[in-house]
Write a structure and sequence with these properties.
About 65% of the residues lie in helices and about 0% in strands. The protein has about 270 residues and is an all-alpha fold.
């Protein structure tokens, strides 16, 4: 009896092996054509619904992760949701913080200058700052035209902050308010960046303190766009990731202070 059962199991095993080698499938599983072989591998749950589900080999990142990264604040917590007078107070406080922070970094740079041996700080300032800042501002100016809509999206509309923002724009040029301010700041950044590069390399017979002062004023003039991004949670778009709220804006504000401090040192302590 035991010998018969053993023989029967051997026969059934050989039969199953033979069926699999010639591509035979049972009626419960649909026969798969050659064109669907890749689909069977990439999406096994489609052909084996009762088996343990396996994640597709070519799966995308979970949408929950992307949504978490791009999660934006509730509009009710933004400064733009407050009354106009409070918005204006907030803009003044932010502006004062940027100015105050700039002078703190100027003080720190001056302290570093005093700590370093004579000539070291001057060499760092004279031979690297004009090149680095010139390249950055030239590239930034070009981007005003290559990704124009991104910069148009962060131009504060006239009347922002409870009517505080009243910067005009000519209408006879046929440009929108946002386009005009995007274009002229882009042109100014390109011109200022090239001017700083030329003076730094000795191509222009003029002290780098002149283009440095002009670029410093330009950096101040475009600061309201950065403040607008924070107060209204404005996004640039055009594939540019939004700034994390609120600490990303804090980091950007600190970077603005450092930039203005560099221009100050390059202008008045050259």
């Amino acid at each position: 009896m035991t010998s018969s059962l053993w023989k029967l199991s051997v026969i059934l095993s050989l039969s199953a092996l033979l069926k699999s080698s010639i591509g035979f499938t049972s009626p419960s599983i649909p026969r798969c054509s050659r064109n669907l072989s890749c689909d069977r591998i990439l999406n096994p749950s489609r052909f084996y619904p009762n088996k343990v589900k396996v994640a597709p080999l070519l799966s995308e990142p979970p949408r929950t992760q992307i949504e978490t990264i791009l999660e934006r604040p509730d509009p009710s917590v933004l400064i733009s949701a407050r009354p106009g007078s409070e918005q204006q107070d907030a803009v003044f406080v932010i502006s004062a913080a940027i100015v105050g922070g700039t002078f703190i970094f100027v003080y720190l740079l001056s302290g570093l200058e005093n700590l370093l041996p004579d000539g070291w700080f001057a060499a760092w300032r004279d031979y690297t700052w004009p090149f680095g800042l010139g390249i950055v501002f030239t590239a930034a100016g070009v981007s005003h035209f290559t990704v124009k809509e991104a910069f148009c999206n962060i131009v504060p509309p006239k009347g922002s902050w409870g009517g505080l923002w009243q910067v005009p724009a000519p209408e006879f040029l046929g440009l929108s308010y946002e386009e005009f301010h995007t274009y002229w700041t882009g042109i100014a950044e390109i011109a200022g960046g090239l001017f700083l590069l030329a003076s730094g390399f000795g191509i222009a017979d003029i002290s780098p303190s002149v283009p440095s002062a002009l670029l410093g004023l330009l950096a101040l003039s475009v600061t309201p766009a950065n403040i607008y991004m924070f107060t209204h949670d404005a996004e640039m778009g055009e594939g540019i990731p939004p700034i994390p709220y609120p600490w990303g804006h804090v980091g950007r504000g600190v970077a603005q202070m450092v930039l203005l401090a560099l221009f100050w040192k390059l202008t008045f302590h050259y």
